[in-house]
Specification:
Residues 61-119 form a coiled coil. The chain is of the alpha/beta class. It has helices at residues 4-9, 19-24, 57-89, 96-116, 119-139, 152-160, 180-193, 211-216, 237-240, 246-255, 267-276; strands at residues 146-148, 167-172, 198-202, 220-225, 228-233. It has a domain at 146-272: 3-Layer(aba) Sandwich (Glutaredoxin), CATH 3.40.30.10.
Length: 277
């Protein structure tokens, strides 16, 4: 412990080092010996893997390019967000030029509609359609009479040998069966009124049909279109009676969709058809 004199003289005893402690740190030649420091334990995140990145000019340039790329992507995202917000909160309206264009288009449509509603335009359209119908009627095949079928081959030729647009109606009858005479007369009249429909007649005995059908199945009508059976009317006397007129058979066939109603055909077409006859 330092005395009062030591403190007054300024002697600092705590700076004193023993010779033994000094000699421990020096070797025999007076040189200090330094013990190698233990290397610090490497941190896993900073451990060197044998390669270095971003340490030279190329690495700096690469980092700069990456930085600029991120900046561009961020600016583009901001622009897209601003565009969406502007579109969301903007008030949509048309310009004066667009209004004028839309107005002119509406005026054109009104003028065209007024022309279409004109009486003369409607008459021209009706006349054009009538001419087309007349031309179609003229090009169709005309028959105007009843074709008598003699055997099975003739029956098949009458059905399959015609154009697909032609309707073929075949009457099955026997001379002494009730209702057959009225059916024959009605079919002959209808063949003249519906010249574009092919009417035929045949006796069941000539096409190898059963005896039961000959007795109880006639008069009967078979209707074909494009070679396919579209109507089969057996023993029509149950519906029309044994004596019936042409108009009765015509209404019966119109009701079942075999013939077209002549009342629905324009008068112009009927007049042209009668003139051709």
């Amino acid at each position: 412990m330092a005395t009062l004199d030591d403190k007054l003289m300024g002697e600092k005893l705590h700076y004193y080092c023993s010779s033994s402690s000094e000699s421990e740190g020096e070797d025999e030649d007076g040189e200090k010996l330094t013990t190698p420091a233990e290397p610090a334990a490497p941190n896993g995140s900073c451990q060197w893997d044998g390669t270095s990145c971003n340490t030279g000019p190329k690495g700096v340039i690469k980092d700069y390019q990456r930085f600029k790329q991120l900046e561009r992507e961020k600016r583009e995202e901001q622009k897209e967000e601003l565009a969406k917000l502007a579109k969301k909160f903007s008030i949509t309206c048309r310009t004066n030029a667009e209004d004028d264009k839309a107005k002119s288009e509406e005026e054109k449509l009104e003028e065209e509609l007024a022309k279409l509603m004109d009486e003369s335009c409607i008459q021209d359209f009706v006349q054009q359609r009538m001419q087309e119908m007349l031309l179609r009627e003229t090009n169709q095949q005309r028959f105007g009479s009843v074709h008598v079928i003699k055997d099975c081959d003739h029956f098949l030729a009458a059905v399959d040998g015609e154009d697909k647009s032609v309707s073929v109606i075949i009457l099955l009858h026997e001379p002494n069966s009730p209702g057959c005479l009225s059916a024959i007369k009605a079919v002959e009249s209808l063949s003249k009124a519906y010249a574009h429909v092919k009417f035929c007649s045949v006796r069941p005995s000539l096409i190898s049909m059963s005896t039961n059908f000959k007795v109880s199945g006639v008069p009967a009508l078979l209707a074909y279109k494009s070679g396919q059976l579209v109507g089969n009317f057996v023993r029509m006397t149950d519906e029309l009676g044994e004596e019936f007129a042409t108009c009765d058979l015509e209404s019966y066939l119109i009701e079942h969709g075999i013939l077209n109603d002549r009342n629905l055909v324009p008068n112009v077409v009927q007049m042209e058809s009668s003139d051709e006859d």
